Task: structure prediction
Amino acid sequence: MIGPAIRTENLTKDFKTVRAVDALSMEIPAGTIFGFLGPNGAGKTTTIRLLLGLLEPTQGRAEVLGFDTLHEADEIRARTGALLEHPGLYERLSAEDNLEFFGRVYHLSASERQARIKELLVHLGLWERRTEVVGNWSRGMKQKLGIARALLHRPSLVFFDEPTAGLDPVAAAALREDLASLASKEGVTVFLTTHNLSEAERLCSNVGVIRQGRLLSIGSPEELRTGKGRQRIEVLGRGFSDRVLVMLRQRPEVLSTSAQDNRLILELKEDADTAPLVSLVVGSGAQVEEVRKSKASLEEVFLKLMEEEKQ
Amino acid sequence: MIDDILTVAWKEWKELFLQRGTVRGGTLGLLFFIGVFGIFLPWQVGPVWVESPLVLLYWAWVPLFLVTSVIADSFAGERDRHTLEMLLASRLPDRAILLGKIAAAVGYGSGITLVSLLLGVLTVNVAFGRGELLLYPLTLFVSIIAVDLLTATLAACVGVIVSLRASTVREAQQTLSIAIMLLLFVPLFGGQALPDEWKSSLLSFLSTSDPSLILLFAVAVLVIADLTLLWFAMARFRRARLMLD
Result:
């Protein structure tokens, strides 16, 4: 498809006095994996519901696959797949019947349904148990079946809310591989929410961090880790006194400092010259063993964003 | 649209009757129901079972009970079991979901009534036929089917409206039981409460009027009630509203 898979402009949703999504504006390119990160209650699920046209925005608008979520939600739901907070499987029915139902919902022909159901269940290791009632299955197996249902009709865009929750490490790794291949080989756009930041870091080409409905940051994991318009220096050694920390904080190019054990971390403006700062540290009597430019992990960035927002 | 309605009804029936080919408690209960109303009662009552127009009154209530026993589960049950959101996130149009659920409940209630009705004829003929074929008069049979469908639709629409508002299946069942009790007892006790003059004029009107006219009037009332409730259910059934509920 031409243009972004998802575009939101000032998208806002209020529930009585609570603002669940607050002026969300973002664009997600087609054929990419987008990770939506945020603590519980941040507004991730509400955003997915808005994008699927299950809720109407209080303000702003959103387009999914080129369709307006308010007026063309049927078109969106016909082209998307989803695995939301709960797998939402019919537990009195077998795995095969669950997929058969959704295959009929998406107007797949009988032969298409048969072939696709077999393909997905074999791939996910559930084929031998297809006739079992889903209610007796483990959470991980239900999650896999939910994934199969989301992909059954070969959607152009899939929403996954915590897709690896409940999966064992091997199954989770296999799913990550599948998602990566979906995006790279089949051009499917994947919108996923996860609490697993290393998963997001490995899988997503773009991530957005949301808290209390507000988008705090958006970009590639690399951009978030480096920090837009900033660089990070790590100084290893001994004797980092409080005095040197105060002196460093007074420098205009230094955004923040922190010292832990034998490690001093400096956040600097993007164009800052590091040599004078290292001289200052050495001049204060500290013994410096190594100086390196480093990147924060996505987890560190995430926690920092949460902290900043709280303040 | 018809395909979508049938798809939803297929899923509902599958959930009702099957658990991978094993007979569930509900199915056993159903066989008991058919046994009582298709074999035991016709055998006890005799040829009157197929001849008297009064059986129409009886068959009008049967689908009401059958439908209310399953319809409370329709939306409240999906919400309880966390399947509603995925159903709403699918491409199914609002009306297909609603009408599919109503069709499944009406098909269930009317289908079982029809099976009991036909089994009743068989029972009466086996027990009392003595070489003579005992059948429902055609007009009576058609009337039973029409009233059966209309009361089943009435119960299904009331059930859907109640189920849409209820947060749990239990709450839906309780509210629905009260609604059905009101539907049964208000005309009964309401009639008793009428002034004597009114009662006697009503009785004389009923005894002197053409029964087919009274039946037509009842059918017209049921059709209007069904259409009104169906319209109301369709107006209430909105994805965004269901998500907020």
Summary: Chain A has a mean pLDDT of 85.
